[in-house]
Write a structure and sequence with these properties.
The protein is of the alpha/beta class. It has helices spanning about 25-35, 50-55, 70-80, 100-105, 135-145, 150-155, 165, 180-215, 220-245, 245-254, and strands at about 5-10, 20, 25, 45-50, 60-65, 85-90, 115-120, 120-125, 125-130, 160.
Length: about 250
């Protein structure tokens, strides 16, 4: 099989994929993370119960052949349709995937059926790499009524990547964060904006104190603050723009 790297996005079950972060559906953000790993993933495939909805968005999508089996069925379906030896799997409700973590996990794949990270919360099977050879044994488990992804992983040749190894790549630890409600996304956006505003105000206050210490003349002190003020306004605007970007764009812009 030719060396094609594939990303699978699971958008089955409930419609978390349609929740919006900063006006953008989560599935768009997750799909874009895969696509913007330039030179790495050659194709991205969405697995959903109704693929037509995603095809209308311009995504390549396939119908989940085992909707009753949850994520295990969606992964098995995706692995049957990929043109690669391995695929990186992520849920559509994980909008903060860090590109360095994704690359690192994929690069550990040789000699294993599964590469799964283990965070402080436990195993993260919906941010993992699976061999296409897993499709048949997954389908066997589904036919026997065993639908748990972790049960499958425990019986496969699995490479476990410990969280300590990934903290260097993603110190914030947001890669494995899944959202649970639209309200959570709204609060997150507001909190980020507030933090930018607080940082802006604090910087201006600090600049004022420094200027007053540096200049005896109040007018000269005010003039000395102008370059700092202009710089902080520009930085705040840049920060708010950056918040609108996906995680990989934020990383490259810093």
């Amino acid at each position: 099989m030719r060396d094609v790297r594939t990303g699978l996005v699971l958008a089955d079950g409930d419609e978390r994929w349609a929740w919006e972060l900063q006006g953008e559906p989560l599935v768009h953000r997750v799909h874009r993370v895969h696509r913007t790993l330039e030179g790495f993933f050659n194709q991205v495939l969405v697995v959903a119960s109704d693929p037509s909805r995603f095809e209308e968005m311009g995504f390549r999508a396939v119908a989940d052949a085992h909707p009753e089996a949850g994520p295990l069925g969606a992964i098995a379906t995706g692995l049957r349709h990929v043109g690669s030896r391995f695929a990186f799997v992520a849920g559509a409700d994980a909008p903060f995937l860090h590109p360095r973590v994704v690359r690192h996990l994929y690069e550990q794949r040789k000699g294993w059926d599964v590469v799964v990270p283990k965070s402080h919360r436990g195993f993260e099977p919906l941010c993992a790499v699976y061999s296409s050879d897993c499709a048949a044994p997954m389908e066997n488990r589904i036919r026997s009524g065993s639908f748990k992804v972790l049960d499958f992983i425990s019986g496969a040749r699995t490479r476990i990547v410990n969280g300590a190894d990934l903290e260097v790549l993603d110190p914030s630890g947001v890669t494995f964060r899944h959202v649970h409600s639209q309200a959570e996304l709204d609060v997150l956006w507001v909190l980020q904006v507030i933090l930018v505003g607080v940082g802006h105000v604090y910087s201006l206050w600090a600049a004022q104190k420094i200027s007053r210490r540096a200049f005896d003349d109040p007018a000269a002190a005010r003039r000395g603050q102008l370059p700092i003020l202009a710089g902080m306004i520009a930085f705040s605007i840049f920060s708010l723009w950056l918040l609108k970007q996906p995680m990989e764009m934020r990383t490259s812009a810093m």
